Amino acid sequence: METPLQTGEMEIRVRYAEVDAMGYLHHARYAVYFEMGRTELLRARGLRYRDLEAQGLFYVVARLDCRFRAPARYDDLLRLTTMTMRVTPVRVDHAYRLHHGDRLLAEASSTLVLVGRDGHPMRMPEALFDVLSAPPSGPAG
Amino acid sequence: METPLQTGEMEIRVRYAEVDAMGYLHHARYAVYFEMGRTELLRARGLRYRDLEAQGLFYVVARLDCRFRAPARYDDLLRLTTMTMRVTPVRVDHAYRLHHGDRLLAEASSTLVLVGRDGHPMRMPEALFDVLSAPPSGPAG
Amino acid sequence: METPLQTGEMEIRVRYAEVDAMGYLHHARYAVYFEMGRTELLRARGLRYRDLEAQGLFYVVARLDCRFRAPARYDDLLRLTTMTMRVTPVRVDHAYRLHHGDRLLAEASSTLVLVGRDGHPMRMPEALFDVLSAPPSGPAG
Amino acid sequence: METPLQTGEMEIRVRYAEVDAMGYLHHARYAVYFEMGRTELLRARGLRYRDLEAQGLFYVVARLDCRFRAPARYDDLLRLTTMTMRVTPVRVDHAYRLHHGDRLLAEASSTLVLVGRDGHPMRMPEALFDVLSAPPSGPAG
User: Fold this and answer.
1) Closest B-chain CA to D22
2) What ipTM goes with this model?
3) How confident is the model at residue B11 (pLDDT cuts 50, 70, 90)?
4) Where are the domains of chain A?
5) Between chains, do A32 and D15 touch, taking CB under 8 Å as contact?
6) B73 contacts in chain C (CB < 8 Å)
7) CATH number, domain C6-133, options 3.30.300.30, 3.10.129.10, 3.40.50.150, 3.50.50.60
8) Is B17 on the interface with D (CB under 8 A)?
9) Cα separation, D18 vs B134, whole angstroms
C-alpha cells in the first residue's frame, strides 16, 4: 500500500442494534464506521465536516470497496484506522482497516467527490485542499 | 458483463429514515437493499434464506464493491436487479443494478461465503447448489 | 379506542438487517415502520410528505409510546395499521397496530408537531388541515 | 421522579448516518442510544449483557415511552443519563435523559422483561437480581 498522506485512529464499540441474527456486526454498518473515521480525521486537522456542509460543500461517496476478513461481535471494542491516500481538487481517496485486538476484520477503500448544494461536482477551495493534503504535523498525524 | 445464471427484480421505496442530511439515500443503506435482492432471488427459486439458517447454513459477505452513480431521494420508488453471476460449492458471486426510472443509480458486486453455525466455511449441500446454479425455468427467471 | 379519523394499512416484510442477535425485529425499527405508515396514509389522501417538506413544512415527532407484545422475525410479512386519531392546526396524533397474521405484535401512539424550516412550531395551512382531518371518502379510507 | 436505584452517564456523538433530511437525529435512533446506556450501566456493575445472553438470559423491551423536547444535530456530543428505577425478578424499569450541554433533548422510560432462549418469560437468577438492584457503591454510582 502507498504511504498515506494522513492517518487517524479511533475506537468504536459495536452496538447491540448493529449486529445481525448471527450475532455479527452487519456488513452494512462498516460503511457507517468508515464515515465516522473520516469525520474524526477532519477533526484532527481542525475541520468539522458539519461546517463544510454549512458552507455548501458536500462529500458524496462515489465508490466503496470492502473486504470482510473476520466477524466483529456485539460489545467488541474495535480500532478503526482511516487513511487519506490521495487528494485532488475534485476528489479524495481513503483507505480503512478495522481491527479487534491484533485481528484484522476488514479492509476497505473509497472515493469521495465534492459537490455543491445543487449536487453538481465542484472544485475544492484551495484552503481546504491544503488542509486535506497536508502532511501530519506532529503527534496528531 | 457475463450472462447471469439467474436474475431477479424488485421494487424498493426509499424510507425517510434512510436518507441523510442532503436528502439522499445514505450510501450504507445500499448494502441492505442488495441483501433484500438476494432474499427475493432465493424466494423465486422456492427457497427461504430463513430456512437455510434454521438448517445451520449461513451466508457471510466476504466482499462488496459498489459504484454510486446518482443519488436516490426519499420516497423514490427504485428498481433493484439482482443477478447470480457464479456459484461454486463454497461461494456465490452476485451483481446488482439499482435504477430510478431509466436512470442507473448504482452498480455493485459481492462475494458470499457459506459458513456453518461455528462460523467456519463449509461446502454447500448438493441440493442447494443445484437450485442456486440452475438456469431460470420460465417467467420467474 | 376512539374512532380514527382516517385509517390505512400496508404490508412490510422484515429485513435481515433489521433483526437483532435474538433473531427478532429490533425494537428501534418499529418507529421506522410507523413513519412509513404515516407516509402511506398521506399518499392515500393524495399528498406526498416529500412535497410538504419542499414547501417548508416539517413534521417533528414530539412523543412516541410503544407497547411490544410479541416478537417479529426476519422475513415475516407484517401488516401495519396506521390511524389518524386527532388533528389540530399545530399537531397530529396517530395510533398504530402491527400484526403478523392474527397476532398483535405492537401497539403505539405518537404526537407530531408541525414546524417550519427554522425548526419553530407553525400552524398548518388550512388546505392541509382539511385533508388531514377529512373523513375517508370511499374505499381508500 | 423517584430516586433511581442506579444511575450511569455516557457521552454519544451523533453520527452522520443517524440524522434525517432535516439534519436532526432521527427519532428512531434514540432507542439505540438508550440501549447503549443500559449496556454501560451493567458494565459499571461488572456485568456484560453479552455474557448474560451467553448464559441464555435475554432482555426484551416490552414498553418504550419517549418525549422529544429539542433536536440533536450531526456531530453534537450528547450526554445520556440512564437510571434503573425499579427491579423485580421478572422485569426492570429504566428512565433516560438525553442532554446537549444544559439543554434537555429527550426524556424516556422503558420496561424490560427477562426471557429465556425459548422466548418465554423467566425469573432472574438471584445473583443478577442483587447486582441490578444494589445501591451504588462509591464513585461509579
Assistant:
1) B21
2) 0.92
3) very high
4) 14-133
5) yes
6) 50
7) 3.10.129.10
8) yes
9) 41
